[in-house]
Each structure stands twice: as C-alpha cells, then as structure tokens.
Amino acid sequence: MHHQRDKYNQISIVSLLLAFLIGLFAMIKSYQLIILFSLYLLTLSIVTEALLLNMSLRKTESIKQLIRGLILFILISYLFIKFVRGS
After folding, report:
1. pLDDT tens, 39-64?
2. Radius of gyration of the chain from Cα atoms?
3. Secondary structure of the chain as H, E, C letters
4. Model pLDDT, residue 67
5. Which pLDDT does position 1 carry in this prediction?
6. Which residues contact 47 (CB under 8 A, 6 or more apart)?
7. In the 8-state DSSP scheme, what is residue 1?
8. Alpha-carbon dihedral of residues 83, 50, 67, 87, nearest 10 degrees?
9. Residue 6 belongs to what domain range?
10. Which of 10, 24, 44, 83 has its CA 20 to 30 A from that of 36?
11. Which key words tag this protein in UniProt (predicted)?
12. Residue 7, Cβ neighbours under 10 Å: how many?
C-alpha cells in the first residue's frame, strides 16, 4: 500500500515541478499552447493529491480536490478547443 502511495506522491511532485518550469518557460516565450499543457500538469498534480488523500482516509478533502481537478480539466479543455479553432 505504501508503494502505491509513494508513486502518487512522486507523480504529484514531479508534475507540479514540471508545471512550474514549463509554465515559466512558456510565459517568457509567450507560447500559449504550452501554458495550457502546464495547466494540464497542474491538474494532474491536484488529482494525484486527491488520490493520496483518499488513501489516507480523508474522504471529504479527497472529493473536494477531485472536483477541483475535474473543473480545471474541463476549463482547460475548453480553452484548448477555443485555441485550436482560432476563435
């Protein structure tokens, strides 16, 4: 059980770090598509944090984090579709 918890923790930390670094690079270079990718990485970090909370029997916080991740995913996907269509 701890092995899976360690994996989720590692995914959460790595995706958060990558989101920061890629997002910073994308803001400096003004790459909007890469900014959306870094937001997807941030969403991944939030979802893995929700899974960690669920494993530690903190169900209420887990559900809140999962809903935050889902809302972010939907909003980022909407922005991605708008970006690709060019509207």
Report:
1. 999 999 999 989 888 888 888 999 99
2. 15
3. CHHHHHHHHHHHHHHHHHHHHHHHHHHHHCCHHHHHHHHHHHHHHHHHHHHHHHHCCCHHHHHHHHHHHHHHHHHHHHHHHHHHHCC
4. 94
5. 55
6. 65, 66, 69
7. -
8. 0
9. 2-85
10. 10
11. Membrane, Transmembrane, Transmembrane helix
12. 13
